[in-house]
Amino acid sequence: MSAVAKKIEQPRLRGAIRIEEAVKVYGDPKTGVVAVDRCSFECPPGEITMVVGPSGCGKTTLLNAIGGFHSLTSGAIYLDGELLCGPGKPQAAPGSDRIVVFQNGALFPWKTNLENVIFGPVMQGKLTAREARDKAYVLMSDAGLSGIVNEYPGQVSSGMRRRVEIVRALMNDPKVLLLDEPYRALDALTKSVMHESLLQTCYRNRVTVFFITHDLEESIFLGDQVVIMTSRPCRVKKRLKVDLPHPRDHTTRTTKRFRELMDETMETVHEEAEKAFALGDREG
What we know:
Layout: E1 17-26, E2 33-43, E3 48-52, H1 59-67, E4 74-79, E5 82-85, E6 98-101, H2 113-123, H3 129-142, H4 158-170, E7 176-180, H5 188-205, E8 208-213, H6 216-222, E9 225-229, E10 236-241, H7 256-279
Parallel strand pairs: 3-8, 3-9, 6-7, 7-8
Antiparallel strand pairs: 1-2, 1-4, 4-5, 9-10
């Protein structure tokens, strides 16, 4: 054996998002509503980027541009260095490399949880039914869902349904998960458990997460960085690096550093929230 140990190469992380001077105007470019204005930031691959800001500031508009549901008026968005949308390509093509989990959920109530999870890859011809079931059993077991594979969404709790949706998204081996307030309707105790479950999922899969929330505690607990937006039009007010060690669990919330980061985030958000309140902005 050589005296010089060979360096073990780590797998290259995927899912780096770069947003450059993104602008979105609804209606006429000159007189319409400016939802996003010269917005620029990066989401490192394999990390969780939390995006917070007042209701109606344009967070979801930005998520939809990444997902391919909205066009940009100008600027550009890149995924792993390749143009998603920008000059000559105003709207990104939807793709399985970017999977969205929305607030209200989209499970088929007439299919079992397992059938929901395997539906996409089988219908797209990416996996045979047997391959999809084998993969789903592993992912559902990792997410603590082994006991509900043959039950229907209406037979399980809202927290379990959220986990099923995230597992369904991971079946496509996406580079990026786009989460639009997925835990908004959950009670505080269920949400806390869901947070730890999501972190465990991310530790195992190393997927990039772009996560919109209004919950500041959620943003600090989950995030590797928190991007705080201004009131509409959406611009980056501050990027906060969350230097809390991993792995994290419920005790993380009791640490001095967690409270310091919460205070810093609250102070930054409060001014923009007051502006949004005065303007009467709505969700967007």
